[in-house]
Design brief:
single chain; globular; binds nickel (II) ion
């Protein structure tokens, strides 16, 4: 079942998702719905919070790198390389907006799979970026929190104005700290 994706302005996007204690049928159904929703929205990753469920779970599939979707439950970053991969990221919860963000090029992540079994995943390049982006969602963090300069913020505001974001939503973009 395709679920609605919540967007910027919905306070849930800023909340911390809770760990999943038991991987049961309800969680598996949620994961399947999220995969369907991610495909429908043409995304490469989707966190449970984005469909309004505050649980630490996300799905991810990047066609050039994976031949099947991943479901990661209670993911924890165990190791990350220096921040040296810059990529223009979008987010299904912030439509039409793209921001260049620096993240670790390689990450090692521990998580539970859909059978509740512990697993370790090592990813580099775009998959590593996607994993970091989705884990941020589970902690209430968004790409608009990663701006590195006033100039970049101004560019973002222009993008948002072009796509007719309301002033109230544009005001949610954090000011860059000096
Ligand atoms: Ni996102």
């Amino acid at each position: 079942m395709i679920r609605d994706i919540i967007t910027l302005g919905n306070p849930m996007l800023r909340m911390k998702s809770k760990p999943i204690s038991v991987v049961d049928q309800e969680i598996r159904m949620l994961a399947l719905d999220m995969i369907e929703t991610m495909y429908y929205a043409n995304g490469i990753g989707l966190s449970a919070v984005q469909v309004g469920v505050l649980k630490r779970l996300f799905v991810c599939e990047i066609p050039e790198y994976h031949d099947a979707p991943f479901v990661l439950i209670n993911p924890v970053i165990k190791l990350s390389a220096a921040k040296n991969a810059a990529y223009k990221e979008g987010c299904l919860s912030i439509p039409h907006v793209q921001i260049e963000i620096e993240r670790s090029k390689t990450v090692v992540i521990e998580y539970l799979d859909l059978d509740g079994k512990p697993r370790t995943l090592t990813e580099s390049e775009l998959p590593a970026i996607c994993l970091q982006h989705e884990i941020d969602h589970l902690d209430g963090k968004l790409i608009i929190d990663k701006l590195i300069s006033e100039e970049q913020r101004n560019q973002l505001v222009l993008q948002m104005q072009d796509f007719e974001y309301s002033k109230a939503l544009i005001n949610l973009v954090p000011v860059v700290k000096r």
